[in-house]
Here is the input.
Amino acid sequence: LKNKQKDIFFEQEGNRSTQKILLVEDEAPLREMIGRYLTMKGHSVVSCEDGDSAFKSVSDGYEADTVLTDLVMPGLRQGSHLLSDLRELLPEATMILMTGYAFNHDTSALSSSDDSNSHILQKPFKFSELEHLLHGEQPAPNPKSEMGVEMTAS
Here is the structure.
């Protein structure tokens, strides 16, 4: 049986957060690394291991400025479907879909969106690429981007 982890809340003491971010990533080491980086940058982060717990967090009242989610995860709500569901609850939030796969997966939640608040972030990525998206800027294309450590695409 899989041991289900509780959602993790990262918050940097003494530093006012610039954004409230909902981070959804099923790989614990990657989720923790991204969460810690965002926290070090002054963001407030609620971290979930799957789409179902992320949807519950928002349904229970968490008002994220940005949703950063993996595309393929366990559970009923995969990244693209999660974004569609969350768009109803968080219409003003920036939606960022992380993927290590080619774009043959369902990204209709982003491609059908008419706003500039929806983005696809190809794994592996540099943290600077993520920061560009968080600040409303489009990062320069970088097909060989790296985070400085090896990431497993999922």
Q: What stands out?
A: Residues 1-17, 109-113, 144-154 have pLDDT under 50 and may be disordered. The beta strands are 8-10, 20-24, 44-48, 66-70, 94-99, 118-122. The first strand starts at residue 8 and ends at 10.
